Structure formats: structure tokens, C-alpha cells
Amino acid sequence: DYTSQYDHGFRLHLEMENELIYEDETFIIFETGATPGFDSEFDGYKFYSLVPGMPGIATTIPDFPADLAVNALPELTDEVTVPIKVNIRLSGIYRLALHTIGDIVPGHCHALYDAELDSSVVLAPGTNYEFFSELRPEDAEPRFFLTLSPAISMVQENASCFNGEDGSATAFSEAEGNFTFRWFDASGEMLLQETEVSESTLPGLAAGFYAVEMEGESLSCGSKRMDFPIDQPEPYVNSVSGVNPDCGIATGYIN
Q1: Greatest Cα pair distance in the chain
Q2: What are phi and psi of 5, to 5 degrees?
Q3: Cβ atoms 10, 100 nearer than 8 A
Q4: What pLDDT is attached to residue 225?
Q5: What is the rounded average pLDDT of the residues 7-21?
Q6: What is the rounded CA–CA span in Å between residue 172 and residue 219?
Q7: Could you give the dihedral angle defined by the CA atoms of residues 28, 29, 35 and 38, in that order, rounded to the nearest 10 degrees?
Q8: Distance between CA 124 and CA 92 in Å, rounded?
Q9: Distance CA 63, CA 25 (A)
Q10: Higher pLDDT, 132 or 255
Q11: pLDDT, position 246
Q12: Spatial separation of the C-alpha atoms in residues 156 and 232, rounded to whole Å
């Protein structure tokens, strides 16, 4: 069970419409020490089902002869594109879904390119991409390409004191180019918008929940969003007690 074996990654699930028993899945995981190539310590070969009509899904590595059931990649700091093969034994309508495994940081971008239709969609976790396919053998070229890009990079400063309003957040991206940044409070009210900049800072923040959206032509998904908190210290509480002095004698004191 790869969903429990690995800390974070993605599970791609393929199923035929109205035929829940006709399904398959493949895994993309992120591991320290993994490389973009084949890693015998982390990667797993794909063995397609022998059940008649059962579809198959696998990832591939350029210049590597075998398909993969588990494709381990380095930690996601740069954009990466993973080719995806589908083995279709019954013509029909299929659904391709993306699910997260473990502690994937919110705000990642997942863009799915369908080479047969020459179109791209944003495949958010928990959503489906529906497509029609004729028969497609195991040795067919990859039909899909999943581009994964890192979440918005963020530097945060919490409020320095209880009820203070000196917190701040700076957002930027590893992608090249300038972007539009929009900042929101917990109620959805926009606090700041900056355009054609490489990074943006929202100052003067009290403790609470905020969000930032970033959009630009160089982003695979067109836009990204990240929700984040600003924290504050616990309030400082003074506790004072004292003893009155005896008459004429300096025996009183204050703690």
C-alpha cells in the first residue's frame, strides 16, 4: 500500500465510466535521495493486469525501457513534467483523477496535457479529467503529461506581541518573470494587489488567516493560491502579591 508507505506524493487513478471494477493506478512520490532517472531503491516496475478489459496506467522516464508503477522524484523545488501512459483495452469513456499522499504543501500546481487532443487542464487533487479513448496498447506513446510545479514560496514574520499588527508575509516564485499578486484576509476581502512584480510583501498583519494568489503567463496553471496563518505570542500576564509591614517595622514586601 504505497499511500501509507510514503510520506508525500500523488496517486493517479484511472477508471472506466460505469465500470468501477475496471480501474488502475500509478504513484508519483517525492523522496530525499531520489533522482529524475530510475532509482532501484525507490522506483517500482509496472506490471499490467492480465484481466481482459482491465485498463492500465503508468509513468515513464525518458530513455528508460520499462514503465513504472512508482516513480520517485527529488523534492519538488523546480517544475517537472512526468509522461503518463494509458493502456486501454476497451473503447469508452475514462476518468483520470489525482489524489495527494501525505503532507503535500498546499498551493502546488498540477497541469495535465492531453497530447491526443492538444489541450491542457488544471488537475486539482480530488478532481477528475474525463476522456474518450479507442484501444491503446501498452507500447503506445504517452498520451498525457503531468506538469508539477512548486507551491508559492513564502517568507512570514509573526506579530511580535499579543494584539500586535507588525506581522508580514512575502510571496515569490521560482518561475521566471513578473506576476500579479493579490492578498486577502479571512473574509475574502482583498487587502493588496501588485502587478508586474517578481515578489510581493503584505505588511502590518495582526494574528489571523490570510491568502495570496499569484498569476502569470510563465505559470503552468496560470495562477496559484496559498492560505497561511500569522501567529502571535501569548499575552503577558503579571501576578503581584504583597505583605503589609508591621507597625514601625519594615517587614512588608511585594512579589
Answers
A1: 104
A2: -80, -25
A3: yes
A4: 83
A5: 84
A6: 12
A7: -50
A8: 23
A9: 22
A10: 132
A11: 65
A12: 12
Distances (CA, A) of 171 to 146, 164, 220, 224, 228: 25, 21, 18, 11, 11
Q: Which three cell numbers stand for residue 128?
A: 477528475
Q: Are 224 and 148 a contacting pair, CB within 8 Å?
A: no
Place of cell 468501477: 20
23's grid cell = 480501474
23-77 tens-digit pLDDT: 999 999 988 899 999 999 999 999 999 999 999 999 999 889 999 999 999 987 7
Positive or negative CA dihedral for 149, 155, 158, 159?
Answer: negative
* Residue owning grid cell 476497451: 90
What pTM does this model have?
Answer: 0.70
User: Is the CB of residue 109 less than 8 Å from the CB of residue 149?
Assistant: yes
Query: 23 near 14, Cβ under 8 Å?
Result: yes
pLDDT of 20: 67
- CA distance linking residue 228 with residue 66, whole number of Å: 41
